[in-house]
Amino acid sequence: MNSALAAPIIDTAVAPVELEYIPQPVPIYMLGESHCVVFTDRIFRETRHINQTFVTRALYLPGISSHDFSDNKLARVGSALAAEHLIIGDPRGRAADWVPFHVSPNPLIIPNVHSKTPKGVPIIVVFAGEIALRSIFLSKLGQSDFELPFPAPGLDRLAMPSGHQHVPFQLVSQLANQVLGPLFSGLLGLYNMGFTSLYLHSIPPPTLSDEEFEKINGFFSPVRLRYKSALLFNQMFRDVASQTSIRFLDIWDDVTIDNALDPRFHIDGTHLNVDAAYITLQKLLTSIVRDPRVAVAGRYEFARQEAEAWFGDGAAPAPNERFAQTGLASADVGPEPAAQLSRRLDFTLDTANRHVRLDWSGGPIEPWSEATGTAQPDTAFMKELYELIYEGEVSGLIHSCLNADFAAVSVRPLRFEVDAPAGSFHTDNCPSGMLRCALHLTDGGGFEYMDADGQAKSIEARAGRLVAFDGNRLQHRWLPDSQILEMSLVARHKRLERCAIWAGMNSWPVDPFNFSTQGFVDYPAGRSHFGLIEDGAAWWLTV
């Protein structure tokens, strides 16, 4: 036998494989034109505020641009999102509309849903409009110039052939709206579906070389016209963002010098290089940290409905008529419990949010005011508060206002200095099924609100007085010299346990069915506060 042909002998016991499992990074979806390709599988970590690892996923849709973004009810966009499990159809495969996974109540029925790391709303950045700018907008303009309705320093240095025709801006605006309208309507459709962490990326600065542009696109367009058109598109992006909740991710000023492409970011005459991509990621993460994280309205509404139906099966108290009529109700726990809680607090912290989380809606990273302070309670404090709100008169009042049992998902101690200016009247933009409460820890200060006639009314602060109010209905503010526990109480669905949570300066979870309390102070301590489905039906029979 030829020894060269003999099968190798492998001792599998010598070198067994070893696997090390690492936490999944949070995906960020870069969707649309080829400008998203540079972001393929880039892994990075934000270390100052969120302390979270991210990975960018490029959902490149060849040929798509602004003019056909919404074609066939966002068919191409929907297919890309479905492939990433961001939208789902009917769980049994029947004909049904696509629904964002993070909004749909269907996955909540599957028991292992709570093993998934809370990540809030998926982050999507859309790249669209640059192809249409070149292939449609500039092609139709030819060499006709127009005047921008806003200042654009530096463009006079860019060449423009003599003898060109001027087009009225009204006609230019109409053409731009035809080209960009489908993109804007598609973005609003995605936002209204529940993709509230939605960004539109700026159009990149065009090449400065006429020869390079003509070689790529097959026609000549003057460099000044190219830049005017890109600036116009970006201004229209900016205007739409200012009028909606879609966020504009603008890096133009960072990659240009006097409104012309900085050569450090040039790569091929159409795209920007990886250094520009890093600027995008820096600006994106800054927005993620600083901008509001919107609660998932569909999940909160489902939670409210479930909480009310479940609570109605028991001995529910009669609805609070005063609260129904005025959006306001109160109870009194007495001065001694309030004083005891107050003694446990040390108001040495400012109101900067030190616990920014993707899965929590909360305050800004800067303090509200130098004249407002807060404190971090300990577990014993949270236990004492828990026992206070879940017993006696307080519990009955909250039940009658919410028509449901409740969980105290955010408890924030606040002290407004005696010489602080009174804040402005405001509403809280609470999600469905949320009751706002404040327990006055001391005498002094008070709660002021606008009644149905637009008249300012006040409730005198008294240690031990608890005020329950509809934060969306009543315009309100706290008066100077107030020391309170401000609470967000959510209607408690069947999977959420009773709890009291200090979540820093956060207001409520983004998703009431999936959030983390790691790093917070809560009671009962050391628990997720979630249970699995409580009925005995197999989950596949309930979908």
Outline the structure in words:
It is a single chain. The protein is of the alpha+beta class. The protein folds into 2 domains: 26-86 and 122-290, Rossmann fold; 297-541, Jelly Rolls (Sandwich), CATH 2.60.120.10. It contains 11 helices and 23 strands. Strands 2-3-1-6-7-8 form a 6-stranded mixed sheet, sandwiched between helices. A 6-stranded antiparallel sheet has the order 11-18-15-20-14-13. Helix 2 runs antiparallel to helix 3 (169-193) and helix 2 (130-141) crosses helix 5. The protein starts with 25 loop residues before the first strand and ends in a 20-residue tail after the last strand. Residues 533-543 have low confidence and may be disordered.
Throw out a few tags for this protein:
about 550 residues, alpha+beta, Rossmann fold, Jelly Rolls, 2 domains, 6-stranded mixed beta sheet, 6-stranded antiparallel beta sheet, 11 helices, about 25% helix, globular
Question: Quick summary of this structure?
Answer:
This protein has 543 residues and is of the alpha+beta class. The protein has 2 domains: 26-86 and 122-290, SGNH hydrolase (Rossmann fold, 3-Layer(aba) Sandwich); 297-541, Jelly Rolls (Sandwich), CATH 2.60.120.10. The chain has helices at residues 71-83, 130-141, 169-193, 210-217, 223-243, 274-290, 297-312, 321-326, 335-343, 379-389, 392-402, and strands at 26-32, 42-46, 52-60, 87-88, 99-100, 123-127, 197-201, 247-249, 256-257, 260-261, 328-332, 360-362, 372-374, 406-416, 434-440, 446-450, 456-460, 465-469, 476-479, 483-491, 500-502, 506-509, 521-523.
